[in-house]
Amino acid sequence: MIQVDIQKNLGTFQLNIHFQSESRRIGILGPSGCGKSMTLRSIAGVERPDSGRILVDGQVMFDSNRHINVKPQKRGIGYLFQNYALFPTMTVAENIGAGLKGTSGQKKEQVACMVERFQLVGLEHHLPGQLSGGQQQRAALARIMAYQPEVLLLDEPFSALDDHLKEHLQQEMAELLKDYGGTVILVSHSRDEIYRFCQELVIMDGGYDICHGRTEAIFRKPRYIRAAQLTGCKNIVEMKRLDEHHASVPEWGFLLKTRQEIPADTTHLGIRAHDFVPLWEEPPFDPGRAEPGSRPVDGVPQAGPGSRPVNCIPVQIRSMARLPFEDRYYLQGAEENMEICWFLQRDLQQAVAEKGLPRWLTVPEEKVLFLREKPFP
Amino acid sequence: MEELQEILGKFDWSPLFISLKTGIAATIFSFFLGIFAARKAVKAAPKCKAFLDGLLTLPMVLPPTAAGFFLLLLFSTRRPFGAYLNQAFHIKVIQSWAGCVIAATVIAFPLMYRNARAAFEQIDVNLIYAARTLGMSEWKIFWKVVLPSAGPGVASGTILTFARALGEYGATSMLAGNIPGKTGTISQKIAMVIQDGDYVTAGIWVVIVMLLAFGIIMVMNLILGKKMKHIKRW
Predict the structure, then answer these.
(1) Do B129 and A83 touch (CB under 8 A)?
(2) Residue A2 to residue A57: CA distance in whole angstroms
């Protein structure tokens, strides 16, 4: 159980974060410089918040009202730094043994055990500078685990690595942490990493926590504009709610008709770039709703909802990018300045190659995200 | 040639030993004081640090004779502190070897302090944070993580401190005077024989002090160089 409620003035912005979680695998997602690392450092006790409280498993680590600030040495919280922070003048074995207490015999035994467990056999007498990135990470993790922390904080552990090594180390880290019974908090700006490792997720931006909950639930329904962006939603556009089941996006020339009720406070609509479905044949029209003063554009009757096809966006291509396993199309809807991103994976690429680019994109109702601005506290 | 032999035959080697002794003692004092002060400065709040830094660097930028003036004010047996030392502990700094060491320490100390501080400031603060989260005490962090990581800076500080202490003249001559066999250091000897017009003796001492300084710095660099394998060559 982690409970964090802290404020700190960081000069350019104010860190004001509040969350609590029972989960053993917590992720903090946010863009660079949003205060994620500062939050982690405050939990570890190496930075002191201006005010607030931090509780770990019921124990008060920091409480500004009661003037409690437990030293990092006494918190039992391990911290894996982005650059691993291995002591450059000590060998791997010395690094692992650096924080251990007990007789030299006991220490040796513990170090040997960690060397074995973290696959560092043969590297005990190497200096950190002589190790590869992966070995360094294992050594740093071994050093922390030797100390048997109840909480493990991972500060962007993979962000400095190249893609190939990153994949490998993520896999390795997942293996190594499988049996770890303590709480892990992973801080990252990579949604893939967070999604992969964390059951619960806190999204942060500009020093604030935007939302907090089960990772899958947040990715499925982000609720807030910023949360949608940070979970990777590429298409976010202003929306006009017409009634409980109808909304229009004038910039796309898009009329949405839903079975579910559209939340009343929705101001924006989000569609993930992978969720579009191409439509080659002419879509059905919605006869019921006419908007006075609507005019056809370029001879195509699409300006008013009355003459517009439902749940379909008329699109024209602007540009495309071909990636190894994905084609990315940048399209435009009714208005030229509004870009729509559409990412196709293998199965759809084939269809597009055969039939050409579709004139319409449609989207399953359940994939539409209804969003609003998060009111700042 | 014969003249040189004659001079070397009855040569008084005492300035060499006095200078060496003074240099070593002053380096040892400066080493610990400098590191201690640097550690305090790195941990201090910015305003406090600026003041501390100015005060501790002053002896380096001040004319040594000005430093000597302050030392005289402090240690003169006619002044309260000096008189107290003399009466209570029979310690006399003026005109004594202790004076040599104190003068050299005060003048050379800023070199140690500044080098150590710069080295400490270069250390990745994450190393210290990591050490703290690993449960290492502040003391252990300092000796096992900070000092070894700051090794090159501390080493060069030590070398420069020794070199400066070895050659100290101004403050030493004011505080300790030039008593042959007691406080007569090489630099004072050179000044004295030059005044007598004895360029040969002066030249011999210049050569000795040059070889000494160069040799020691060389040896220290080589020894320390071996311990710094983790530092990459440019």
Answers:
(1) no
(2) 6
